[in-house]
Amino acid sequence: MPASTPRIKSTGLHKGEIAPGVAKVDPIIIADKVTRTFGGLKAVDVDHLEIPRNAITALIGPNGAGKTTLFNLLTGFDKPDTGSWSFDGTALSGVPAFKVSQMGQVRTFQLTKSLAMLTVLENMKLGAKKQRGENFWAALIPSLWRAQDDEIEERALDLLKRFKLDTKKEDFAASLSGGQRKLLEMARALMSQPNLVMLDEPMAGVNPALTQSLLEHILDLKDEGMTVLFVEHDMQMVRHIADWVIVMAEGRVVAEGPPEEVMKNTAVIDAYLGSHLDTDLGIVTGRIDENGNPL
Ligand SMILES: Nc1ncnc2c1ncn2[C@@H]1O[C@H](COP(=O)(O)OP(=O)(O)OP(=O)(O)O)[C@@H](O)[C@H]1O
């Protein structure tokens, strides 16, 4: 990975001894007893979790650990069996996805959701937060819509320039490469001027040149005062940009902490790298005891 401008990592994010569920000095999300079961499988079983504000947090874990399901729950795209959580001090359980994003918490998807037969610019405009028509009286005054349309277009063009997609503004999203579509999705998420940006595998399927640019964009978000939570498989990326790492396995948080600390943790090595293949992952996650009995 080519060297980039070094950025300062955020430290001192937690309070007290580091352990799964540790309290944060300034949490933007606080979740309690969040569970989600599919059939007999507990995909998410999070006792307590806090996400630090204005930092970059990576959510890692093996396939099927429950990372995407947790994203879906926190953003209102899925409903939990139990649990509650808050965003910026406001209870969010039961709040639908479109309202969650209006409140300043946006997310992207593992498989990009850009609308293929709309142009890049049209995709961007759809990401804007307040559209005319949401306010009945404003919808009756054409000059207000025009001012709003101009403002939205200006913001979209600024963001497209920043993500080097401005020359493609009239192209259909379908014609973009996988990496460009990831950039478009991130740019579109910023149209709603969020406080918290949640990125589900932003680097997956992106070529190395664009990966570097995506990483820089993620670091920029923090510099602009946003909080980032992202799912990632590649430990090197995580080490490079994350201030804090949360490790999930079998639906549970098995470790968390600053990247260097977390990567030394044996629970992480077991969950992630499977270095002790003779040990059932259930022992690491506290699902079963040493004899294989449920706990
Ligand atoms: N809609 C669903 N119906 C049934 N099972 C599901 C559903 N969504 C997720 N699961 C199951 O829940 C578990 C957690 O899946 P999830 O996609 O959240 O994991 P993940 O950590 O994001 O994995 P990956 O890294 O592969 O994306 C998996 O066993 C998965 O098969």
TrEMBL record:
InterPro entries: AAA+_ATPase (IPR003593), ABC_AA/LPS_Transport (IPR051120), ABC_transporter-like_ATP-bd (IPR003439), ABC_transporter-like_CS (IPR017871), BCA_ABC_TP_C (IPR032823), P-loop_NTPase (IPR027417). The keyword Cytoplasm does not apply. The keyword Nucleotide-binding applies. It comes from the Bacteria. SUPFAM superfamilies: P-loop containing nucleoside triphosphate hydrolases (SSF52540). GO terms for molecular function: ATP binding; ATP hydrolysis activity. Residues 29-275 form the ABC transporter domain. Pfam families: ABC_tran, BCA_ABC_TP_C. PROSITE patterns: ABC_TRANSPORTER_1, ABC_TRANSPORTER_2. CDD domains: ABC_Mj1267_LivG_branched. Keywords: ATP-binding, Nucleotide-binding, Transport. One of its GO terms (cellular component) is plasma membrane. PANTHER family: CONSERVED COMPONENT OF ABC TRANSPORTER FOR NATURAL AMINO ACIDS, CONSERVED COMPONENT OF ABC TRANSPORTER FOR NATURAL AMINO ACIDS-RELATED. This is Amino acid/amide ABC transporter ATP-binding protein 1 (HAAT family).
